[in-house]
Amino acid sequence: MRSVLMLAKRNCLCFFRDRANVMFSLMAALIVVMLYLLVLRDMMISNYPGLPGVDNLIDAWVLAGLMGIISLTSCMGALQTMNTDRSEGKDVDLMVTPMSPWKISCGYILGTFAAAMLMSLAMMVLALAYLAASGCPMSGTGIALAFVLAVPSCLSGCIVMYGLTSFLKSSGAFAGFFSIVSVLVGFLTGIYMPMGSMPDGMQVVGTAMPATHFAALFRQLIAGDALDKSFASADTSQFRLDMGFDLHFGDFMFDTWTSLIYVTVFTAVFVVIAVLRMKRN
User: For 119, which of 52, 61, 74, 85 could close a Cys bridge (C-beta 3.0–4.6 Å)?
Assistant: First the structure.
C-alpha cells in the first residue's frame, strides 16, 4: 500500500508543478464560462421572457453543469504524467519493481483522483460563491450533497480516462485526444446547448456518458431551488428534460439511484480495461 501512495503522491506533485498543464486542464471549463458570459447568457435568458428569477436559474444551470465536467478535464491533465512516463520509457522502471500491475494502476488512478478532487473543489467553491453573491436560492442540503457527489464524479472520471488513455502511447496522440475531449465534453453533456435542442443521436451519445449523469445530478442539487422558485407550481417536466435536469434512454427515465448504478457499472468496465492494459504492457 505504501508503494501505491508514494506513486500517487509523485503523480499528483508532477501535475501541480506543471502550471501550464494545470491551466490546460481547466481549458474546457474556461471555454464554457467565456462562451456563456459573451454569447449564451443573454440569449438563453431572452428565451424565457417574464419568467421570474430566470437569470439565477440559468446561472445555476450552467455552473452546475460545469461541476459535472471539471472532474473529467482535470483528470485528463493529471494523466499527462502517466503518458509522459510511457512515452519516455519510465514505465519500464515501474515494471521491474515488486509492484503488481494492479498496484501501478491504483497509484496512477489515486494520484489523478487527488488532483481532480482538489481542482473540482476549488471550482465548486468559486461557483457556489458567485451564485450565493448573486442571490441564487440554494439549500444547505443541496450544497452539502453536491460536495459529496464530487467524490464519485472525480473517481469515475479518473478511471474512465485512465482506461481510455492507456491506449495512447505518444505525447502527440495524448495531446490530440485531450483537445478533442475538452471541446466535445461541453457539447455532449448539454452545457453549450440544452439537451432538448440536440439531434436524437447526439442526445443518446450524451446520455451514455457518465459525466452527463453527474452534470444532471449537480443541476438537481444546485439549480433545483431556483427552478422551483421560477416555475412555482407550473409543470416543469418538459423543461427538465430539455435542460438536462432529467435524462432518459427512450422511455426509460433515470432517477438519482439508476444514474449512480449506471455510472458505477460503466466505470467498473473501465477498471477491468485498465488492469488488462497494464498487464499486457
Answer: 74
